[in-house]
Amino acid sequence: MRPMDCAKCLGGTLIPLAVLGTLANILLFFPGADRIDNNLNLSEEVWYFGGILGCGILMIFPSVSLLNLKKSGCCAFHGQEDCGKRLKMLSTIMVAGIGIVGASYAFAISVVAINRGPKCFVGNNTWKYSFHNGNYLKDRDLWSSCLEPINIVPWNLSLFSIQLIISSIQMLLCGIQVVKSFFEIICEKCRCHEICGVG
User: In which compartments does the protein localize (predicted)?
Assistant: First the structure.
């Protein structure tokens, strides 16, 4: 697979992941597939927009950049032998870096949310975080302490876990592009006819 084809493949993979991450974050606003009356009763981590911002919006830059990388004219840089390839690879490092930052943000939010557990109604007109340091992950009997919303614990756990997995894959893909582009830059020469599809 040629370098530009690889970049296009990575960019195309990031788009559905960004959509899924955004969707997971949106669903978190409807705990237990229901709507709560007071938004203050939602878990704080939902409002940090890890999936919408980190997995979604910030992932637009690397995905679009990598998809369009093949379309730019690589031999238009005054006939230079490197065909502007190093400049292109430098730009992909920067946008992939943005992707890594966004995915890392979503990853961190997901870890905190999973460890903390959801905010829920525990009785006596009280909404709070009833779990501590992820203790509910090993003891499912503790889930019954959350009375409302119905199924809030598996709902939050599932969606934040999905967000965690998606952000991990995004970090890996963007990291691959950074490493690949770095090695392309330090190469002394590039094969311009391969990049431009000549010969």
Answer: Membrane
